[in-house]
Specification:
The chain has six helices and four strands, in the order βαβααβαβαα. By secondary structure, it is α/β, with parallel strands linked by helices. The longest helix is centred in the last third of the chain and has 30 residues. It binds 4-nitrophenyl phosphate.
């Protein structure tokens, strides 16, 4: 089981989009039972709120539902509970490191550092650009999933031969 926590500032736009895009990708590849995927915020600003309406709209255009998700804040114990803690921008990584009390196991990464063009994902809550956010997050999730399959799944599959 590979456990992934996506993290952004508010947990109402980017990290829930990443959570539900990634769940959709692993489901389409028949790998749902090998993953546990969730998302959280570095701030308490939106605690308990549903996913932003514009983010839900964008996801639903792609046939993805984010119903039932409410914002939660990342806690220190999440560091031990997850294998990969994936932030959306550099600023998230500093806050995640602070919450976790450091990153001794190298679990904290920036999503688009898995792509061939490493960069931050701009916050659509401020830019209003949910199309770019979706495309960037989709690209990052695909690259992350390919990396994880190479790193974990093919290896365990090989053990089973
Ligand atoms: P997110 O966007 O980090 O992508 O969820 C934000 C949503 C809300 C706030 C900040 C960022 N806020 O400060 O309320």
């Amino acid at each position: 089981m590979i456990k992934i926590l996506f993290v952004c500032l508010g947990n109402i736009c980017r990290s829930p989009m990443a959570e539900f895009i990634m769940k959709d990708l692993v489901e389409k590849r028949g790998l749902s039972d090998q993953f546990q995927i969730a998302s959280a915020a570095t701030s308490s600003e939106e605690h308990g709120n549903p996913v932003d309406r514009r983010a839900r709209q964008k996801l639903s255009q792609k046939g993805i539902s984010a119903d039932g998700k409410h914002a939660v804040q990342m806690r220190r114990q999440d560091y031990a509970a997850y294998d990969y803690l994936i932030g959306m921008e550099q600023r998230n990584l500093s806050a995640m490191d602070r919450i976790a009390g450091g990153d001794p196991e190298g679990k904290i990464h920036r999503l688009l550092d898995f792509s061939s063009r490493p960069r931050d994902i701009s916050d659509p809550w401020y830019t209003g650009d949910f199309d770019t956010a979706y495309e960037d997050i989709y690209e990052g999730c695909q690259c992350l999933l390919d990396d994880l399959i190479r790193r974990h799944i093919s290896r365990s599959a090989l053990h089973n031969i």
